[in-house]
Known about the structure:
There is one protein chain. The protein is mostly helical. The protein has one domain (18-293). It has helices spanning 14-34, 44-52, 59-78, 84-109, 115-122, 141-160, 163-190, 207-221, 226-246, 258-263, 266-283, 294-301, 303-323, 333-364, 367-370. The radius of gyration is 21 Å and the shape is globular. It starts with 13 loop residues before the first helix and ends with a helix.
Amino acid sequence: MTKIQEPLLRPVMPELDSIRGIAILAVLIYHGFYWKTDLSVFPRFERLIITTFWAGRLGVNLFFVLSGFLITGLLLDSRCRKDYFRRFYIRRGLRILPAYLATLAILVVTHYATSAFILLSLAHLSNLTPLFGVAIGYPLLWSLAVEEHFYLVWPTIVRWFRAQALLYCCLAIIVLSPICRILSFYIAHSRGFVSYEINDYTWNSADGLACGAVLTIILREYNLGRRRLLQVCCFCILLSAAIGILGLPFGIISRQRPFGMALEVVPWHFLFVALLGICLVVGTGQRHSLVQIPILRFFGEISYGLYPIHVLVFEGFDWVAKRYRVPGIGFGKMSDLTVRFAYAGCVAVLLAYLSRRQFEDRFLKLKSRLS
């Protein structure tokens, strides 16, 4: 029987779980192979392969675009409710806080980060600690802080702005965030050292969230059909390619120059918007299985628990490998890196699965009762 096309927007959109799975796997590969790896000890060809895994860090930007899309959609759908704010913050708190606080507890017990960093992280300021003279003790928390700031401000804006004003607000953010990155570069350069942690500041990271929000606004408020959505996706792909090519002379790949650093993630944001749109179209048609992939949906389901814990598992493996003989280790640098990824990755996935089933789900079940 031919499958009837479903609406693009539904209460449950399995294809977006697949996208979430892609994002977390990209981040996992980035931290497993590229992050903190001394490339100088590898032969040229292996160094080239490992360098390509740098792109995995863009999984965080994919998370931002997806979050902007989903959260803005939830807010638009519920903004006429009397319990709008209460419902949103209870449901977000039940989703975010248990695993987040558990991660901070682990950092305290293992003495991984300083007390100052932990206290600022409790206030969701992990990405802004350099402004307080405190080093970022556990880098993964920066993106969670950006999300929390988004949750703090965005519901009020969505509640009181009409669709057109909300769209203009998002477009302004998309333009202003790169400008903020340029200004941050020059400010840091004037002080003698440019740390790319400045890109972690919320005002320098908001354009990905705004891109996702634009997509959900035009779908909901302007009755965008499937054909028009695909046209928008094609436009985003062309715009992404144009910015990427035009940005090459400005150092868009190396990030060593201000305009290059400011524009580096911009093409990817537009590309990720296109990815979301295409997956929505395919996921509601006859070939939905192409984008509703069980293994990716599994990783998407455990992604929130996997994200904050996986680097601790990788570094825990390094600690064990330095003190004990680990089967498979010692047969070459690239082989060791691959074996490390296999061991630690499996442990991290298992812990994230247990966290979701035995810990996070207990709080998620309270959503319907408390909100």
